């Protein structure tokens, strides 16, 4: 299952840019012991990279009772992160210092959705 964006994903993401801020929807499914590993990534994100790139966490929560979902569609965690632009997000993930922490995210997850949202 997909966990991390590839170069072609980022290229398409930037090509589809309508301009303005972007809120990224993160749906996360942890591997065994992944919650603790993900916290190492999350801590670096919160303390260093979000402010550096003008981003903020709008919501972070654990998955709970799924009211409408097929078996296996439940998520362990949900995050909404606002970035000032798609370019800011792209610069963050290309930052060599940020890349030193991404292996924690990769190791922590078995599946993820990372989707840009567009305001109505």
Architecture overview:
The chain is of the alpha+beta class and 120 residues long. The protein has a single domain (7-117), classed as Alpha-Beta Plaits (2-Layer Sandwich). It has five helices and four strands; from the N terminus they run H-E-H-E-E-H-H-H-E. The chain has helices at 7-15, 34-52, 86-94, 96-99, 102-108, and strands at residues 22-30, 56-62, 77-83, 109-117. A four-stranded antiparallel β-sheet has the order 2-3-1-4. It is globular and about 35 Å long. It starts with 6 loop residues before the first helix and ends with a strand.
Topology:
Elements: H1 7-15, E1 22-30, H2 34-52, E2 56-62, E3 77-83, H3 86-94, H4 96-99, H5 102-108, E4 109-117
Helix pairs in contact: 2-5
The domain count comes to 1
Instruction: State the order of secondary-structure elements, H for helix, E for strand.
Output: HEHEEHHHE
Q: Based on the structure given, which CATH architecture is correct?
A: 2-Layer Sandwich
Number of helices: 5
- The overall pLDDT, averaged over residues, is 94
Write the CATH fold name.
Answer: Alpha-Beta Plaits
Largest beta-sheet characterization = 4 strands, antiparallel
Strand order of the largest sheet: 2-3-1-4
User: Structural class from helices and strands?
Assistant: alpha+beta
* Unreliable parts: none
| Total beta-strand segments | 4
* Alpha-carbon distance between the two ends: 30 Å
The coarse silhouette is globular
CATH class reads: Alpha Beta
Strand % is: 25-35%
Helix content: 40-55%
Radius of gyration: 14 Å
């Amino acid at each position: 299952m997909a966990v991390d964006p590839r170069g072609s994903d980022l290229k398409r993401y930037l090509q589809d840019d309508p301009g303005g801020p972007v809120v990224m929807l993160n749906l996360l499914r942890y591997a065994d012991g992944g919650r603790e590993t993900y916290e190492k990534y999350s801590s670096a994100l919160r303390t260093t990279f979000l402010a550096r790139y003008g981003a903020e966490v709008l919501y972070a929560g654990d998955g709970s009772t799924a009211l409408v979902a097929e078996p296996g569609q439940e998520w362990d965690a949900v995050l909404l992160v606002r970035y000032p632009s798609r370019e800011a997000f792209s610069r963050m993930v290309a930052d060599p210092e940020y890349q030193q922490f991404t292996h924690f995210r990769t190791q922590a997850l078995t599946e993820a959705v990372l989707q840009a949202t567009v305001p109505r």
